[in-house]
Amino acid sequence: MPFPLIPIIIAAGGALAAAGAAVTAHSLASSPDRSVRRAGRDASDRGDYAFAISCYTTLIERGYKLADMYNNRGWAYVKQGKYDLALADCAQSLRLAPNNANTLHTRGSAYMGKGQLDRAIADFEEAVRIDPWDAEIKADLEKARRRRGR
Question: Which domains, from first to last, does the chain contain?
């Protein structure tokens, strides 16, 4: 298994948050916790969503309450079919970054999973308006439109 040291990194990595330092995207990029973030991303890429959720939860608990942490964990919840948990994370992400196309895509995917196609389409359309070059969002928008048309 390629991540046997992750628990050690997680245990040692929260020094910034524990010390009361301001937690920002920059502090995450320059801290030992970046290994945890990378492990979460890698886990999600290989389909290990439970481990990805664990990594993002650890970072959020350490004080890295950043929009992309909530969005990434939300995406992993979508992939597990845990749509209500995904929607909760998307709500927090959008409070932090209201015009985030990735989070709107994640939320749209959660709505699509719940069969709430009008809401999914609205989110996908807004995400495409923000990021008209994202082919994956456009494909999901068309998929939701086709499903609604049945």
Answer: 1-65 (no CATH), 66-150 (1.25.40.10)
